[in-house]
Amino acid sequence: MSAKNIQKTMKDKSIEYVDLRFTDPRGKLQHVTMDAKVVDDEMLEEGIFFDGSSIAGWKAINESDMILKPDLSRPVVDPFTSHNTLNLFCDVLDAIKKNPYERDPRGTAKKAEEYLKKSNIGDKAFFGPEPEFFVFDDVRYKNDMNETGFKIDSTEGPYNTGKEYDNGNMGHRPGVKGGYFPVPPVDSAQDMRSEYLKAMKDMGIKVEKHHHEVAPSQHELGMYFGTLVNQADNIQLYKYAVHMVTHSFGKTATFMPKPVKGDNGSGMHVHQSIWKGNTPLFMGNKYAGLSDTALYYIGGILKHARAINAFSNATTNSYKRLIPGFEAPVLLAYSARNRSASCRIPITLSKKAARCEIRFPDASGNPYLTFASMLMAGLDGIKNKIDPGKSFDKDLYALSESEVKKIPTVCGSLREAMESLDKDRKFLTQGGVFTDDQIDAYIDLKMEEVHNFEHTPHPIEFDMYYSC
Questions:
Q1: Which one-letter DSSP state was computed for residue 365?
Q2: Is 271 exposed, middle or buried (0-12, 13-18, 19+ CB in 10 A)?
C-alpha cells in the first residue's frame, strides 16, 4: 500500500491514533502512538526518529538516534483499543545512513528472504508455527535478597480438586496430562479461545482452529502457513491477541515454555518448506515423499540446531522443557510421523504440502530471528548437500541408553546455546543476513539473563541442601 492508501484507510475507519510497532532483540513488541492529525505522507514514507539507546541490546547513548520506518503493506486496525487505532509494523533504520539497522530483528528476517531469492534455490520460504501457552487466574512471584518464589493458580489446575469456592467446586477439570481433547465443561476455555481467533481474524490473520493442549490450563491456536516475515508478524499479533483477550477475561496468559512443574511444557512446532514459483521444492520420491532438497534442508537444521537454540529456545526456562527422557524433542533426528523426533515429516493429503516440522522451538523468543536462523541453516544444508543421516521410525524414547548416546541432542541450557552460537555462526552471516556485531550484541544480552539465573539461589536448593 502507498501512503495515500493508508490515509484513505484512516479516513474510512475514523482512525484517531496510529501505533508504530517494532520488535526488540528479545522478541518483545514495542510501540509509540501518534495522533492521527500529525500523520502525513512524509511521516508514513520517511518514518520518525526515536531513542534506540533505550532498547536493550541496541545503540549506546552517544549514538541513540534511530528511525522507525512504517511498513505500509500491512495496516492493522487494533480490535482492543477504546479509540480507533491503526497499528503499523515498522522497520528500524540508522538515523545517519538511512539504511536498515543491522540489529533490527525484522530487518534480519527480510534479509533472509532476500538471501533465499539471490541463492536461486527458491523464492519463497513458508513457515507454519504452532505456539502453545498457559492461562492462569493468578500469578505471583518475588525475588528479593531474603525471599524468592512464585505461586500460580488456575481453576483448571488439578491441584484445585479439593479447594473450596464461594459458589462451589464444580469438579470438572483436566487431570495431569489430561487436557487433550475433552469437551467442556472439562475444557473451561472454549469461549475464550474462540475470542482469540476472532481477534486474530480482525487483525487480518487467516486462522484455522483452536484447541486445549495436553496440560491443564494450556492452549493452542491454529493459523495458516505464510512467508517468513509475514508469519513472524503473525506471531507478534497472535501473542498480542492472547495477552489482551485473556486480560479482558480477568485472567493472565504466558508463553513461558515451562511454568508448571510435573506437566507438559509449551513449545512452538514450526512447519517449513521452500517453493520456487508454483513448484514445491520439498516434494519428491525419497524418504517420506521428500526431495533431496528437503533432506539437505533437514541436514542443515540438524547440523546447526545447537546454534539455532540461541534464538528458538531463547530463555533459561526453555531448557526446563527440553529435558532428555521425557516427551520433549531433544534428540536431533528426523522421522516420518514420529513425534518424538526433533524433526518430523507430517503425513499430508497433497504431495505439494511436503514439509518438515521442527519441534524443539518455543514461543518465548524472537520469531524473526528464530525463523531466519532456521532458514539460513536449511539453505546451508542445501548448498553444501548436508546428509541428515538415517531416519528413526521407531519410538526414540524406547531406545536403549547406548543407542541414545549415539544421537546428538539440542543444548541443555541457555549458556550452552550461546556458546554454540558463538562457535557456529558462519551459516548465519552468509550474504550479510546476520552480522557479527548483531550476534555479539545478542549473546551479551542473553548472557545477562544467564548470569542473573545462575547467581540466584533457587527454592529447591533450600529443600535439597539447607541441612547439608
A1: S
A2: middle
Catalytic one of 91, 220, 263, 362 = 220
Sequence-ordered list of residues with C-beta below 8 angstroms from that of 427, at least 6 positions apart, any chain: 300, 304, 307, 376, 377, 380
Is 324's pLDDT higher than 80? Answer: no
Residue 57 is given by DSSP the state T
pLDDT level of residue 396 (50, 70, 90 thresholds): confident
How crowded is the C-beta side of 436, counted as CA atoms within 13 Å? Answer: 2
Task: Tell me how far apart the alpha carbons of residues 271 and 269 are, in angstroms, rounded to a whole number.
Answer: 7
pLDDT class for 61, splitting at 50, 70, 90? low
At 261, the pLDDT band (50, 70, 90 cuts) reads very high
In the annotation, is 51 catalytic?
A: yes
Can you tell me the distance from the alpha carbon of 330 to that of 341, in angstroms, rounded to the nearest whole number?
8
Let me know if 339 is a catalytic residue.
yes
Set 102, 104, 130, 362: catalytic member: 130
Catalytic residue among 103, 269, 344, 425: 269
Among the listed residues 282, 298, 280, the one whose alpha carbon sits nearest the alpha carbon of residue 380: 298
CA distance 249 to 237: 18
Alpha-helical regions (H) of 266-343: 292-312
Residue 235 parent element (H or E): helix 228-248
461 is a catalytic site residue: no
Average pLDDT (342-351) is 90
**Cell representation of residue 38:** 500529525
Alpha-helical segments (H) within 13-134: 41-46, 105-119
Q: Which of 40, 41, 51, 65 is catalytic?
A: 51
Given 16, 211, 339, 449, which residue is catalytic?
Answer: 339
Q: Tell me the average pLDDT across 386-404.
A: 82
Cα torsion through 160, 166, 172, 177, rounded to 10 = -20
Decide if 380 is catalytic.
Answer: no
Is residue 448 annotated as a catalytic residue, yes or no?
Answer: no
